[in-house]
Amino acid sequence: MPEDDHLKRIQDALEGPWQSLARAEAQKALARDEAEAARARDEAEIALAQDEVETARAQDEAEAARARDEAEAAHAQDEVEAALAQDEVETALARDDARKAREKKRVEDKLKASAPFKTIIVVAIVLVFGILWWIETFNDYNFAKTVATPVEARQGGKTPTQSPVPAASVSRLSWAEVLEEKPDPKIVRNTQFFNGITDTKLPWRVKDRLTGIEMLLVPPGKFTMGASPRDKQATEDEKPAHEVTITKAFYLGRTEVTQEQWMKLMDKNPSRFVGDKLPVECITVEEVRMFLNKVGGGLQLPTEAQWEYACRAGTTDQTYGDLDKIAWHRNAFSKTHPVGEKQANSLGFYDMIGNVNELCQDRYDGVYYKFCKDGVVDPTGSAHGKFPLLRGGNWNSDPISFRASYRFELSPNHGQTYPDYGFRVARNP
Ligand SMILES: [Ca+2]
User: Fold this and answer.
1) H-helix or E-strand spanning residue 108
2) What is the C-alpha separation between 112 and 80, in angstroms, rounded?
3) Does residue 213 surpass a pLDDT of 90?
4) What's the 210 CA to ligand 1 centre distance in angstroms?
5) Res. 70: pLDDT tops 90
6) What separation in Å is there between the alpha carbon of 69 and the centre of ligand 1?
7) What is the DSSP string of 157-216?
8) How far does Cα 277 stand from its chain's mean position?
9) Half-sphere exposure of 160 (CA within 13 A, CB side)
């Protein structure tokens, strides 16, 4: 046994270094494997990342191509619509020319037909005056005087001084031509407004001399501005409804400003849909300001309160009539329409709802009405509003916008213009 123990010790002494060596080798191999596995993982992650980048790039390219296609399609659509609009204008002009030619021929024919009668009448007048002159001169008979002298004079009274020929209606407004002094009851159907207009002693229907814009007088009064009763579509910026007093009569454009009126003062027509009687659109606020300045003062945008007062024209519902009858609204053949073709409201204004949205003087402030709840007089809007305010909805807007109280903010558009808004002018007498 001692020999065995000795032998074992010798054996252990010999095996120890080999085991250490083997362990070290095994650890090195393990470390190599782990390094390779880590490298493989890294490569896999890099490949995945590259795939993702390539996929994203492919998506971007596909979206860019789609956007290009859409832009090209929109451009083509624009060209087709512009061509159609041009055709419509040319057709209308041709119709107008034909009508004028027919009218001219009719007048000429009438003149020709009446020529013999005119000759007979002239001869008869000459004969009558000749006979009277002969009686006066040669028969000493004052027949002519008897015929010509009024009854009072023949009975011994004095001959009344002849009344001067009534002068033509003279405008009391230096800037306007008077078209009608008194309101037409068929147009101003609201009695209160009718009487209010008459009480102002101002002419009712006038035409701005420089632009040819027809304007109607709106009398002073009170109304409830904001969300209409039972209007479930009313949004927070329309609440609370509150009493507003308009203390002074003002004139307001009977229609939106047309391209024909715009071109009387401006050099170019920016509108997308072209036509003399179509509302001007694709305008910037700055261009509108230039147009108003060219008149030399007076014309301005209506305040938001003036606009709603005139739009409601005494009504308290969401709109002043059946939408299809009063407004070019959504899906109205995807374009603007000549002004004044739909039913007017009870003050005589056309297209207050629909066709194009209308710029107001005030700046939009969504919480402004909260500060007006106790009633305001001639409000001109919030001092905190930043961006222009639009009213009335347009040919392309959401159904919610075709309401008298709807307020729309024209967000900053970085010079971009749109064919869905225009404007209507107002001015003080
Ligand atoms: Ca409108």
Assistant:
1) helix 2-138
2) 48
3) yes
4) 22
5) no
6) 33
7) -PPPPPPPPPPPPPPS-TTEEEEESSPPTTT---HHHHHHHHHHTS-SEEEETTT--EEE
8) 13
9) 6
Give the three-class secondary structure for 288: helix
Q: How far is the CA of 19 from the centre of ligand 1 (A)?
A: 97
Catalogue all structural domains in the chain, each as residue range(s) with its CATH number.
Answer: 176-427 (3.90.1580.10)
Full-model pTM: 0.62
Find the 337 Cα to ligand 1 centroid distance in Å: 10
Q: Is the dihedral of CA 126, 128, 133, 138 positive or negative?
A: positive
Which 3 state secondary structure label does DSSP give 384? coil
> Which pLDDT value is given to residue 334?
86
Q: For 157-181, what is the mean pLDDT?
A: 60
Task: Using the mean position of ligand 1's atoms as its centre, give its distance from the Cα of residue 351 in Å.
Answer: 5
Q: Distance, CA 94 to ligand 1 centroid (Å)?
A: 28
d(CA 418, ligand 1 centre) in Å: 14
Strand partners, 214: 207
What's the CA gap between 302 and 392, in Å, rounded? 13
Q: How far is the CA of 38 from the centre of ligand 1 (A)?
A: 70
Pairing of strands 242-246, 221-225: antiparallel
Residue predicted with more confidence, 412 or 428:
428
| CA–CA gap between residue 397 and residue 271 (Å, rounded) | 18
Q: Averaged over 208-217, what is the pLDDT?
A: 96
* Listed residue (217, 241, 266, 258) closest to 351, CA to CA: 258
Cα(313) to ligand 1 centroid in Å equals 15
What residue type is assigned to position 61 of the chain? E
Q: In angstroms, what is the span from residue 272 Cα to ligand 1's centroid?
A: 16
Residue-level pLDDT at 321: 94
Instruction: Report how far ligand 1's centroid is from the alpha carbon of 390 (Å).
Output: 10
In this prediction, residue 287 carries a pLDDT of 95
CA distance 226 to 175: 33
Tell me the pLDDT tens digit for each residue of 264-306: 999 999 999 999 999 999 999 999 999 999 998 899 999 999 9
What are 172's two structure tokens? 């009391």
pLDDT in tens, 74-103: 666 766 665 666 666 565 556 656 666 676
Summarize pLDDT for 20-34 with one digit per residue, the tens.
777 788 888 888 888
Query: What is the DSSP pairing of strand 421-422 with strand 357-363?
Result: parallel
Q: Is the pLDDT at 134 greater than 60, yes or no? A: no
pLDDT of 141 higher than 60:
no
Residues, beta carbon < 5 Å, ion ligand 1: 351, 355, 392
